[in-house]
Amino acid sequence: MGRNIEIKYIEDSTKRQVTYCKRKKGILKKARELAILSDAQICLTMFSSTGKLAEYVSPSTTMKEIFDRYQRENHVDLWEAQYEVISTPISLFLYALQEELKTQQEIGSRLKMEIRQRRGQDDFSELSIEELSGLKENLAKSLETVRDWKSNYGSASPTTGLFIDGGGIDCKSSEITFQQLDPSHTDLHNEAGAA
C-alpha cells in the first residue's frame, strides 16, 4: 500500500519544508475527514520550524472547549503554574501601588483639612489643642506676611486684588487664599514635597 520510506530527520532545509507542507496538508485533510465521518471533536495545532501556525478545530466545538475538556478529563490545570509565576511579581507590584495610593490619599486629606481650616470652613470644635495652637501660629505668620506686604508696597496689587486704604485692607473678591498671601508656606510645600 504505502511506500517504505525511512523516517529520519531531513538535513536539507528546502526538502524539510516541502515535506512538512505536504504532510501538513495530509494530516489536516485526515483530521477533517475523521471529524465528518465519526463526529469526533478534534483540535490539531502544529507549528513549523519557522514558527508558522497551522490548526484545525472540528466545526462542532472550539479550541477553548477542547482544552477545558482536556483539563477536566486529566485533572490537570494547564494555566495555573504559568499564572502563579506571573502573578507573584504582579501581586507585589499591585500591593506596593496600593500602599503608595493610601499614603498619597492621607497626605491629600491632611492638605485639604489644612486648607479648610485656613479658610475657616472647618469645624474647629473637632481639633485638638495642639492642632489649634498650630493653626494659630500659621494665622499669625500669615497676618505678619500681610502687614509686611502692606508696609512694603502700600498700593493695589493686580495679582492679589488687595487695596490698602489708610487704616485697613479691602479685598476685591470675597476670599483671600493663604497661598496668595504666603506662597512659600512651609507646611503645605513640605507635605507635597514629601510625597
TrEMBL record:
| Molecular function as annotated in GO | protein dimerization activity; RNA polymerase II transcription regulatory region sequence-specific DNA binding
Where does this one sit in the cell? Nucleus
Q: Specify the MADS-box domain's residue ranges.
A: 1-60
PROSITE patterns given for it? MADS_BOX_2 (PS50066)
InterPro entries on file: MADS-box/MEF2_TF, MEF2-like_N, TF_MADSbox, TF_MADSbox_sf
**Pfam assignment, any one:** SRF-TF
> Which Gene Ontology terms describe the biological processes this protein takes part in?
positive regulation of transcription by RNA polymerase II
> What UniProt keywords are attached to this protein's entry?
DNA-binding, Nucleus, Transcription, Transcription regulation
Q: Which GO cellular component terms, listed alphabetically, does the Swiss-Prot or TrEMBL entry include?
A: nucleus
- List the SMART domains hit by this protein, alphabetically: MADS
Q: Does the keyword Mitochondrion apply?
A: no
Output the PANTHER family linked to this UniProt entry: SERUM RESPONSE FACTOR HOMOLOG
Q: What is this protein called?
A: MADS-box domain-containing protein
Q: Which organism is it from?
A: Papaver nudicaule (Iceland poppy)
